[in-house]
Amino acid sequence: MDFLHLPSFASMRVLVFGFWVVTLFSEFAVGITRHYTFNIEYLNVTRLCHTRTILSVNGKFPGQPLVAREGDRVLVKVVNHVSNNVTIHWHGIRQITSGWADGPAYVTQCPIQSNQSYTYNFTITGQRGTLLWHAHISWLRATIYGPIIILPKHKDPYPFEKPHKEIPIIFGEWFNVDPEAVISQALQTGGGPNVSDAYTINGLPGPFYNCSSNKDTLKLKVKAGKTYLLRIINAALNEELFFSIANHTLIVVEADASYTKPFETHTILIAPGQTTNVLLKTKPKFPNATFLMAVKPYFTGRGTFDNSTAAAILEYTHPSHKPTPQNLPLLQPTLPPINATDFVTKFTAKFKSLGNDKFPSKVPKMVDKKFFFTVGLGTSPCPKNTTCQGPTNNTKFAASVNNISFALPNSLSLIQAYYSKRSNGVFKTDFPSVPINPFNYTGTPPNNTMVTNDTKLVVLNFNTSVQVVLQGTSILGAESHPLHLHGYDFFVVGQGFGNYDENKDPEKFNLVDPVQRNTAGVPPAGWIAIRFQADNPGVWFMHCHLDIHTSWGLKMAWLVLDGPEPNQKLQPPPSDLPKC
């Protein structure tokens, strides 16, 4: 790891990741510049007796943690040594006026082509906690992902008990075949994609899969009577996941790099793109048992999904430093049923912003602009003289926001088209603020489920306070949609089932301490209401973080105009910005 110009060695923090340790030296309160080089390169990896050549960063799978402090400037030079075009997204980083460094292909940059490089340059402003980085083109994030760990400013304590150790836990999905072939086939046939073959914890599937040996199981060694901070990340492609540790309680203290009011739970639900920091208090004495840590999916849709369980082992070290006795009982957690929406609803409702004097909840109390977006599946016609495997005769699966299936440009990124005043023929600015053809969103679906393909943006004046109601639909099945907004955190002020009622539901909004997130699940056949202050100029992607839904078109973009002050304007493009 590459930590430059560290002015002080006063204290040291250790982060355990997989089987290796990241050591970070603390520095003074002044932010420093950290330099990283991410080489995109091939790596041979064997899981479930299948050896695949995957795409990796610096030959690691999962990728290395990017570690910084609040206030630091980060420069990451990404060098592409593979044949695929690639981009990296720093998921959850606000990117204040630095939209060129956000990463989604054809939104804020053209991809980095083979044998080319690009330096992502951003400053971490007003954020601390756990986020993630991942590829943001096609399905390359299946293997190109890793943690972002933002430590508080020097001498700023955590608003909870200081942990003995901090441990990143990152979930993924393993495919025995190339995921690029999976999505390519799905888009060609119009049908649902083949599902993954396993879930992984820090890259390892665990003991419940055929041909998954002891060495493919993460063993997390802990001491009795200690408190550990688990930085939990869901980097899976297409599944929301339950996680639990047998006979242990987890205390949730942070979501998406925003502190929460602490609450206890035996199980967490975490959607792709979400992060959850939990405190794990170990047993006071050596327990004469080992404990399974298990991950399995939450799924409410109609299609196929990977209905398997990944597992790791929590193992206590013996106090006398003797080897841990063999044949200790292995206790297993009880996870909710696959479609446990009741549990998910109650669990989600427990998240509240910390909302104290140091970390106030800055939810907009009044809003300038209101939007009502339907999110869900739909169909598109099969090309002439071809046969498709979509949901109905000769159709393809599609997905949309307000019935617009978003089409990305390919000759110029959206932000370049805006900045260089070349938007003609690239994008339009008349994205509908409400559905053009209203219907009973969660009732019997309309006969016509065809979507419209287009590239339309919503334009916002700088500092507009915004409310968006995201309404799930029942077209082709009601399912949960974890929506991610780039460039912003938002406040989830309300959620419910059925159709949103503009007259009654706002009365129940939480405008005191709503949870602050960058990714939030729209419940199946339900809705969420979010608010944010549009104080970051640029073009910002918003999409479902289930990659198959993104591929089908469940995405859109916001164009936030410059403000009057110099620090409220989008910075000029960097000189090494990739060309299409």
Automatic annotation (TrEMBL):
The cross-references to InterPro entries, in alphabetical order and at most eight, read: Cu-oxidase-like_N, Cu-oxidase_2nd, Cu-oxidase_C, Cu-oxidase_fam, Cu_oxidase_CS, Cu_oxidase_Cu_BS, Cupredoxin, CuRO_1_LCC
Entry EC number(s) = 1.10.3.2
Which Gene3D superfamilies did the record assign?
Cupredoxins - blue copper proteins
BP GO terms, sorted: lignin catabolic process
Per the annotation, how and in what number is the cofactor bound?
Binds 4 Cu cations per monomer.
Q: Report the cofactors.
A: Cu cation
Where is each Plastocyanin-like domain found?
40-153, 166-318, 439-562
Where does it localize?
Answer: Secreted, Extracellular space, Apoplast
**Isomerase found in the keyword field:** no
- SUPFAM superfamilies from the UniProt entry: Cupredoxins
Q: Which family does it belong to?
A: Belongs to the multicopper oxidase family.
Designated name of the protein: Laccase
Q: Taxonomically, what lineage is the organism?
A: Eukaryota, Viridiplantae, Streptophyta, Embryophyta, Tracheophyta
